Structures are given as C-alpha cells and as structure tokens.
Amino acid sequence: MAARDGAPLTGLAPVVRDDTVLVVLGSFPGVASLAAQQYYAHPHNHFWRIIETIWPPPQREMVGWCYEKRIAWLLAQRVGLWDVYAACTREGSLDAAIRNAILNDFAALAARGPQIVAVAHNGGESFRHARRVLAAFPRPLESHRLPSTSPANASWSFERKLAAWRAVFARHGLV
Annotated catalytic sites, by residue? Predict the structure, then answer.
C-alpha cells in the first residue's frame, strides 16, 4: 500500500498489556501488513513462524490462526508489538524507501507497559532509534538488535534468526 501523491502512511496501534515484559519493535508495517491491518502479515515474513517455534502453541500451526487469536496468544506470553515509526511516506515495503518518518510516542508505551524490561528491535532500521526508545522510559531497559524477520533479510537462514530470537526471549525468562 504505497501512499498516493506522497500522502503519509499511518502505522498500526501498539499491542501491549500491563503485564508485557518485552516489546518487539519493527520499523514500519510493510504493504501487506498495512493492507491487512496486521503485524507481520506478509506470508514470507518469518516473525510468526519464529514465535510459533519458540513457544509451540497447544494446537499445531498457530500461523494459521486468525490474527486476533495469534495476538492474544502472543500477549499471553508477555510479548508486545509496535514499530518505531508512527507514520512515513514510502513506496513499497523496504526500510530503505522510508521518508519523512515520524517516531512513535515511546513515553506512552512506557506508561502502557509498566513491566516492560526490554525492547527487541526487529532489524537495523528499528535499532537505529534504540537510544531514543531507551530515553523515553523512566526505568532501565535492555535493548536488543535482532535479525530482521523480513523476507528481504535473505542473508540469515531461518535457523540463525530463530537462535538469535530465542536467546533474547530466554534472557528475559520468557522461554
């Protein structure tokens, strides 16, 4: 979903509860995610497959569940989702094409998630803003740079991505 005539695109709302311990911050939703109004909606993005592998759900193949059920299940694991950008202009889905970006309100995120102790940045573009995220929290917070789950990150195998993601979740007692 490219912005017509350069109009800004608006991101998705945060997915956080008051018992969230770790928030995964992406950069900005891709075309498929904006069209579906769902985080990580592109069928080749590894996010939901990684999550399903780290915490096998009671039923097989969580990625086939409806979005609302996946989100509820993720929140039950005490993991939240958001992006570093609230809005931007962009043609296509690549982070390199992001222009005129406006950062999200991380102080509001801190208030919504009083138990958040860590942020996991899903890729380098998100991690570029790690200092700003940390500065918005009134308490110490750990920040982790994880390999992007995007299909554009083909240099990392699924297994390498999984190992990196699992290590961060384990560090915070989530697995």
Answer: 45
